[in-house]
């Protein structure tokens, strides 16, 4: 009897948590966005600046996610399969973007790549500008999403028996073929899951991007910055409308990738 009461209590607490911290806030966004009806909502979403900010956000999020998937997989493989001096420090530094406020990350890039910094002056000598453009946005997104792919791929690599790779080497297969045929299928669900998280996180990033992108309307202004601008212009309905687009897109991507990942797991 006591065990049933405990389970019911825990279940009630979890349901209450989901309702209070997830369903109610999300529902309020949808209610606010559609409070004036469908036509005003559609007008807000399809406005020139709003639509460009959405498209730019999606495009740069996809680019940063692809970069993150490649770099994250390589780093995870190195951390699991190789032993070298400073490995523990590098492994602990992977989680730095999680603990570092994104506004601090943006200031860090401003200090590092600014026109008055040594690196900024050196890059400017070659005509390379990494601030106040779309490249800056991608750099910021890659930094804030850096841990996701690494931390989802690492456990899968640790579970993979190195003897399988050694057997492939013994049979004459090269490193690339071994990785492609033995390692990659095992870690593919982790790459997809990590990329999914990175993409969703990129859609919502504000702190670092607002400092290093320049926030040029139609050129470097991402959706999160546009939403902030709408709130400052006393247009909460417009801010909620763009938020609904990002929220819906994020939920659909999460659901789709989750289905694909489960399917991959069953096939494996």
Folded structure, characterized:
Helix 10 packs antiparallel against helix 11. This protein has helices at residues 2-33, 38-45, 48-81, 87-93, 96-99, 102-113, 118-125, 134-144, 146-159, 162-170, 175-204, 207-212, 223-232, 236-267. Helices cover 81% and strands 0% of the residues. The chain has 268 residues and is mostly helical. The radius of gyration is 22 Å and the shape is globular. It contains 14 helices and no strands.
How are the elements arranged and paired?
Elements: H1 2-33, H2 38-45, H3 48-81, H4 87-93, H5 96-99, H6 102-113, H7 118-125, H8 134-144, H9 146-159, H10 162-170, H11 175-204, H12 207-212, H13 223-232, H14 236-267
Put the structure in a nutshell.
With 268 residues, the protein is mostly helical. It is 81% helix and 0% strand. The protein is globular.
* Spans where pLDDT lies below 50 across 5 or more residues: none
Shape: globular
Share of helix, binned: over 70%
Q: What is the count of DSSP helices, taking H or I runs of 4+ residues? A: 14
- The proportion of residues in beta strands is under 5%
Pfam family, one: BPD_transp_1
Membrane topology: Multi-pass membrane protein
InterPro entries: CysT_permease, MetI-like, MetI-like_sf, Sulph_transpt2
Subunit structure: The complex is composed of two ATP-binding proteins (CysA), two transmembrane proteins (CysT and CysW) and a solute-binding protein (CysP).
